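I'll show a sample.
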Amino acid sequence: AEDLEQEKFERSFDIVLATASDAEAVTNAVDTVSEIEDIGVEELDPDALAKPAEPAPAAPAAAAAPAPKKAAAPAKKEGAKAAAPKKQHQSQSVRVDIEKLDTLMNLMGELVINKVRLEQIGQTHRMSDLMETLEQMDRVTGDLQNIVMKVRMVPVSAVFNRFPRMVRDVSKELGKEINLTIEGEETELDRTVIDEIGDPIMHLLRNSLDHGVESPDAREAKGKPRVGEVGLIARHEGNNVVIMITDDGAGIDASKIRRKAVEKGMITQDEADRLDDADAVRLIFLPGFSTAEQITDISGRGVGMDVVRSKIEALSGHVDVETHIDEGSIFKIKLPLTLAIIQAMLVRVQEEMYAIPLTSIDSTVNIEPTDIQTIQNKEVIVLRGEIIPIVRMEEALQVPHVKDSEELFVVVVHAGEAKAGIVVDNLIGQQEIVIKTLGNLFAGLKLFGGATVLGDGRVALILDVATMIQQ
């Protein structure tokens, strides 16, 4: 283990492993390590291993016996000096425990909280010298914050590299011809997020291969090329990284989804009839939902899409789907670039303060109580010709009602394509906030993505916009 940790190997290494698990379990366990490019597992005869191996001249010791597991680390591996081509001038790197980086991030957060507090003191007492110094401090802390964030970043190619082989194997198994294109693999994500997104992407890719892309004969009958196209795309959008899994297959039939959901008792026929096609297709993310007529090794067990959604939401992300019959589907995963320090809008509901992430906000508007209309038992407002459903924060969060205000403020937020207006009593203003997790005790509170400590020491809860819109 020490030799691996210190990277005393070139592109690959061999391990002899004694285990009661089968070859598939070993492969799956090793496959979760994002830096590993390729694994070869070979079962050995225990009797052959018991005999001393003949020393092979000028060969590494592990090569004397056939290797049960071969793992090749790509040259891009973090801090992998041995894996890089040998040059005179190598960029030097240091391995750092991720816990130390977490501590550094926490200290950075405390620095931001104190900086905000100093800004409040400077504004209250109108101390110009302090404000000038704080402007310089703001620049320095901003640069420091960017560097701390970048230290934790890893290119998504660490995850994407394992999929071409999987697509090749699965398409062969299904008797389909599929071409995988990968874009934006240099896009960087937080290391903790990188380790978690492999499984959701694998689920979505397998789904596209099995349900999405048709067989070559069926494609030809529809006038499409025999070879199906599946895409894996990563790119930056503001403070988020978007990962898209696209295919040019059959698309998802909304009427079939409605029928299956009603059959399984997940929704009533009335509810199914009221859903538009986009919302009906999103029913595939419900737990236990599956449209597969038969269960295969690839899919159809009714686990997958709900697991994908819960995993992505656990990373403070959001997953959505767009589909067109006979044109294909796009699954879109949106993940925050950083899970530590964000810009947020502070709002007041009665006596309580809440924070709404700025990346989720479209606009803020002042309205009169008479501007709120009711359509199909739902309260809505009309903004620039668009009908937007509203959420009263008092009711959603069960805040004790004190008095009616003559003027209401609405924060229009979005999650994917869906929009909603959050009715609040007052807008406090924009502020840089540090996200603190709520801990296991409050794990059931889905409406909140965490909490933050404000400059004056008060705690404000951070709203999870995607969950609020879904509910």
